[in-house]
Write a structure and sequence with these properties.
Structural class: alpha+beta
Number of strands: 15
Strand order of the largest sheet: 7-5-4-1-6-8
Number of domains: 2
Mean pLDDT: 90
Distance between the termini: 70 Å
Oligomer: single chain
Largest sheet: 6 strands, mixed
Number of helices: 5
Radius of gyration: 19 Å
Low-confidence stretches: 262-268
Shape: globular
Strand content: 25-35%
Order of helices and strands: EEEEEEEEHEHEEHEEHHEE
Length: about 270
Amino acid sequence: METEFQKTDVLITVMTYPLPSRGYQELVCTAGITRSGEWVRLYPINYRYRPSDQQFHKYQWIEIELESKGAGNDKRKESRRPNLETIKILGNPLSTKNNWLERRQVIDALPEHSVNELRRLYEQDKTSLGIVRPTRILDMKVEEVEREWKPEWDNLFRQLTLFGEIQKPLAKIPYKFSYVFECEDTKDKHETMCEDWELGVLFLKEVERLGSEKAAAQSVREKFLNDLCSPRNDTRFFMGTIFPYNSWVVLGVFYPPKIDKPQQPLLF
């Protein structure tokens, strides 16, 4: 049976740090919002190996053909297999001018949930993407993890090089960064990994600037906790599950400045 693809416009909002892949060299978890306001996950995408005219950015509209349903073994509600050759970038990324007005017009219209609500939705219909507005962001924990890729991934890198594949360097981030926060429906603290690509890129840049991995990790913590999650910002988390489990992580952070609500006109 021939696979059906549908041309779809997607506003890219989520891009996670790349992971090695046997079939695609590496994969980036990529997700966004359609014109009809629905979440969609584009899987698989080997972003760094796409031609330059297909390397989109966050908050940029793209046109792409997506499989009408599912993405192979990934049965999560929003997952769609893309026809990578059809990626077409539609204009510049949405602006942050006027208190992020262009971006907020899309994101503010989407439903928000607590972490527990998202977990229940996953059990109901495999919903695996959503927005959480924390009531309190308490901390960002920084923990050391393995410094090297898993042995099977190291073997994969060597095999690809041996067979003449162009292999771009992919640094392993030797720390895990996790938000600690509360939601409106519970006082339980959620500790959730942040896998935003921007976090990994910032860490590597800070290592180069500061000359110390520990100092770089603390600089990332300062940025993602005290800057992105400042009380001045209307911070929300883009959250999603890790396939094939119902383990929710922070895929990206939306942090426009808070806007004062306009006062109601006085009647008397």
